[in-house]
Amino acid sequence: QVQLVESGGGLVQAGGSLRLSCAASGLTTTSFAMGWFRQAPGKEREFVAAIGWSTGSTHHADSVAGRFSISRDNAKSTVHLEMNSLKREDTAVYYCTANYRPRGGVPRNPEDYDYWGQGTQVTVSS
């Protein structure tokens, strides 16, 4: 059974930085993608970034490009989201997600992911 456990959320001032981590267990191959989505109150879940585990290829949403960076630690089966120059509009619950991708690819739609973490709150104050 695949389990995803997020950590690293919290309260930060605008312009500050946070690092989110997601530890995965139960994945049986390296043909998968992991990603981050976020959801603010009253809004739909939004793609943030994703990475193909075997290739290391990444995608970042336009809204976070140049400020956020997704990476992976193969040895620890952990994906990180480095968030810099945070803005108030980055406030949301951030969810880690994963899905097997036997044909590769790094999807950006939440419907393409089967496994989700519990979420971690990120609050950016002015």
Structure, explained:
By secondary structure, the protein is mainly β. Helix content is 0%, strand content 51%. The chain contains no helices and 11 strands. Strands 2, 4, 5, 6, 9, 10 and 11 form a 7-stranded mixed β-sheet that branches. Strands 1-3-8-7 form a 4-stranded antiparallel β-sheet, with no helix packed on it.
Task: Provide a short characterization of the protein structure.
This protein is mainly β.
What's the number of extended β-strand segments?
A: 11
Question: Gyration radius, to the nearest Å?
Answer: 14 Å
- Give me the strand/helix succession: EEEEEEEEEEE
Distance between the termini: 40 Å
What is the averaged pLDDT score?
A: 95
**Secondary structural class:** mainly beta
> What helical percentage do the residues reach?
under 10%
Instruction: Classify the oligomer.
Output: single chain
Low-confidence residue ranges: none
**Biggest pleated sheet:** 7 strands, mixed
